[in-house]
Write a structure and sequence with these properties.
Blueprint lengths: L4 H8 L1 H6 L2 E6 L2 E7 L13 H18 L5 E13 L7 E11 L3 E10 L4 E13 L4
C-alpha cells in the first residue's frame, strides 16, 4: 500500500482507474470516493448510468470491507448488493461514503450513500461482502 489512497484503490481494483475514481478518505470507519460526471458514462437524457453509480458504491464498499477484514482473511467478494436510486445525476460528480454496518468473521455488511455535487442523496446501497479465507491482507 502507498500513502496515496487513490493509487492504493486503483492498484487493488484496476476498474477504479478505468472509471476515474478518486479516493478522498481511506479508513476502516469510512471510505469516500468520487467519480466525475462524463457524457460517456450516461444513459438517455444525460443521467449517469445506474451501473456507474453501483460501480462506485461497490468499489467504495469493497474497499471499506477490505479495511475491516478479520485477522488471517485474504480479501472479500460482494455476494449481495441492493441499490435504491433516489435521483438522477446529470452534471458535476457523485461521491460515495461507505461505512461498515457489521464486521463479522465471515460476512461484512457495508452501507454506502451516494451524494451529488449539491450534497443531495442520489442513491443508497447496502452490500454484503463474504470474507475470503487465506494468508491475510
Amino acid at each position: 500500500m502507498t500513502d496515496d489512497p487513490t493509487k492504493t484503490m486503483r492498484d487493488l481494483m484496476p476498474f477504479a482507474a478505468t472509471l476515474g475514481i478518486v479516493v478522498l478518505r481511506y479508513e476502516p470507519d469510512e471510505v469516500r470516493a468520487r467519480l466525475m460526471w462524463a457524457p460517456e458514462l450516461c444513459t438517455a437524457g444525460g443521467a449517469l448510468h445506474g451501473g456507474v453509480v453501483m460501480a462506485l458504491a461497490d468499489s467504495a464498499g469493497g474497499a471499506c470491507a477490505f479495511l475491516n477484514l478479520p485477522a488471517g482473511a485474504a480479501g472479500t467478494t460482494t455476494v449481495e448488493s441492493k441499490t435504491n436510486f433516489l435521483r438522477a445525476v446529470r452534471d458535476g460528480y457523485i461521491e460515495a461514503a461507505a461505512r461498515p454496518l457489521h464486521k463479522g468473521r465471515t460476512l461484512i455488511v457495508v452501507e454506502t450513500d451516494i451524494h451529488d455535487a449539491q450534497q443531495r442523496l442520489a442513491a443508497r446501497v447496502t452490500q454484503s461482502q463474504l470474507v475470503l479465507a487465506g494468508a491475510g491482507k
